[in-house]
Amino acid sequence: MISVRALEKSYQDLKVLRGVDFEVARGSIFALLGSNGAGKTTVVRILSTLLTADAGSAGVNGFDVATQAARVRESISLTGQFAAVDEILTGRENLALVARLRHLKDPGKIADDLLERFSLTDAGGRRVATYSGGMRRRLDIAMSLIGDPPVIFLDEPTTGLDPEARIEVWQAVRELAARGTTVLLTTQYLDEAEQLADRIAILHEGRIIVNGTLTELKQLLPPAKVEYVEKQPTLEDVFLTLVGKDKR
Amino acid sequence: MTRHFLGDTTALLGRSLRHITRSMDTIITTTVMPIMFMLLFVYVFGGAIESGSDSYVTYLLPGILLITVASGISYTAYRLFLDMQSGIFERFQSMPIARSAVLWAHVLTSLVANLISLVVVVVVALIMGFRSSAGIGAWLGVAGLLVLFTLALTWLAVIPGLTAKTIDGASAFSYPLVFLPFLSSAFVPTDTMPGPVRAFAENQPVTSIVDTIRDLFTQQPVGTGVWVAVAWCVGLLIVAYAFAMTTYRRRIS
Ligand SMILES: Nc1ncnc2c1ncn2[C@@H]1O[C@H](COP(=O)(O)OP(=O)(O)OP(=O)(O)O)[C@@H](O)[C@H]1O
Ligand SMILES: [Mg+2]
């Protein structure tokens, strides 16, 4: 569904991607891990036709990102690293605008359904400028789901969300995959990759250094070993000892 | 994909018109400077200026209208810059839309906003004693010329909007444009100016546009000046459009 081969990209002298290869199967969730500046956003921008690669090739839904960009854009939806929402419009207007731009019928109803699904119904009529960071992010993701594109890119979708909102987003991502949508997400949170991804790849110094399922990745390390660790008393232990209620 | 051009432009135009109606202050701030110039020149300097016409407001208004447009278009650069910064521009570019619709929506919005500002300025001028016996045809001529001028300057404003690094950079380009009418026949007749200044003033676009609008207002024959004015506007429009589109293509590749 997504296939990336020998992808290279430099910004002036800085070689960010030095030959990146990976494949993502239809309907699966693929997590791209990497430290700050590893080039995750660069990969996502190339795949969503916002940036052209220096060398190598990338295909999405069977279309080449360089030569069939318009067809690629029909197949994808992008949630960038920073919420891309219109501050002056209301949440509902933002959703309806995207629905209209995707040439769908009844943008108003689509907007209302998504507001409901992302617990934004009460805020739907307010300007986005008044939203919290988490609400903005939820709106941003909701905007990406409009039109059910077969491939969705999520660049650090849960950065800055509270634990509850994070779980909501995870749930939405799982539902997408269950419906057959292919998801490529980047993240800094290892537990997010563990929770969601069918396959995990680590981008480091311009290349994919490992790529596999969680189980496969775990096997790369030596088997779990038993360690004895000196246990420091907790404040609770101190308290209980001093008060003398519990003699352990 | 281009079959969606009209629909996409309409959707995006609706969006940026909401930006205007929700921040009417941008219309107000656009008109403040031209209105101040008008007050200053009519009530302070006006008595000492030999314009050779009965009413100095009437003499002055065409130049003031051009200043209004020159200050109004900086908001186009500003709004475009904000779209680039906020990432919403990229969101639109990653969608299956007619890509140039994003620019056209901003340009048409600029046209609407500037026309509102121009109406406000004309109303103030009427209060200050501007009178014209021009018929509907002459008014349409004035409107047409102002629309052309606005479109030309708006496409020019698209360039800093796409390339600026800071918000100040995005709007600073309009200062010289606001200044240009001072070196023209907008405030005083050019024949009192020293040689080189006069040569510049008489051969720059503002003078021909101002003279044409003034002739239309006062029902004088416009002569060949109108074609010079139209040629300047259309020429500027074509050059600005070409540069804006080149900048745009470079920006999205
Ligand atoms: N337009 C640009 N011009 C110059 N350098 C850039 C540009 N965009 C990104 N870079 C550089 O390329 C490298 C990779 O950036 P990228 O945004 O892809 O990393 P990332 O993995 O997404 O990082 P993060 O986790 O911080 O989002 C960084 O060193 C960054 O400074
Ligand atoms: Mg990034």
Overall number of domains of chain B: 1
Low-confidence stretches of chain B: none
Pick out the low-confidence regions of chain A. Answer: none
Q: Tell me the series of helices and strands of chain A, N- to C-terminal.
A: EEEHEEHEHHHEHEHEEHH
Give the class-level CATH name of chain A.
Answer: Alpha Beta
Explained architecture:
The complex is a heterodimer of chains A (248) and B (253). With 248 residues, chain A is an alpha/beta fold. Chain A has a single domain, classed as Rossmann fold. Helix content of chain A is 35%, strand content 25%. Chain A is built from 9 helices and 10 strands. Chain A has a 6-stranded mixed sheet with strand order 6-7-8-3-9-10, sandwiched between helices. In chain A, a hairpin with a 2-residue loop joins strand 9 and strand 10. In chain A, helix 3 crosses helix 4 and helix 3 runs parallel beside helix 5. The radius of gyration of chain A is 22 Å and the shape is globular. Chain A starts with a strand and ends in a 5-residue tail after the last helix. Chain B is mainly α and 253 residues long. Chain B has one domain. Chain B has 12 helices and no strands. Chain B starts with a helix and ends with a helix. The model of chain B has no long low-confidence stretch (mean pLDDT 89). The complex binds adenosine-5'-triphosphate and magnesium ion (MG). The site of adenosine-5'-triphosphate has 12 residues of chain A, from strand 2 and helix 1.
Features:
heterodimer, A: 248 residues, alpha/beta, 4-stranded antiparallel beta sheet, 9 helices, 35% helix, 25% strand, globular, B: mainly alpha, 0% strand, elongated, binds adenosine-5'-triphosphate, binds magnesium ion
Topology:
The complex is a heterodimer of chains A (248) and B (253).
Chain A: E1 2-11, E2 14-24, E3 29-33, H1 40-47, E4 55-60, E5 63-64, H2 69-75, E6 76-79, H3 91-101, H4 107-117, H5 133-145, E7 151-155, H6 163-178, E8 182-187, H7 190-196, E9 199-204, E10 207-212, H8 214-219, H9 235-243
Parallel strand pairs in A: 3-8, 3-9, 6-7, 7-8
Antiparallel strand pairs in A: 1-2, 1-4, 4-5, 9-10
Helix pairs in contact in A: 3-4, 3-5
Chain B: H1 5-22, H2 25-45, H3 56-72, H4 74-86, H5 88-93, H6 101-127, H7 136-163, H8 167-172, H9 174-179, H10 195-203, H11 205-217, H12 225-252
The structure holds adenosine-5'-triphosphate and magnesium ion.
Adenosine-5'-triphosphate is lined by residues 11, 14, 16, 34, 36-42, 81 of chain A.
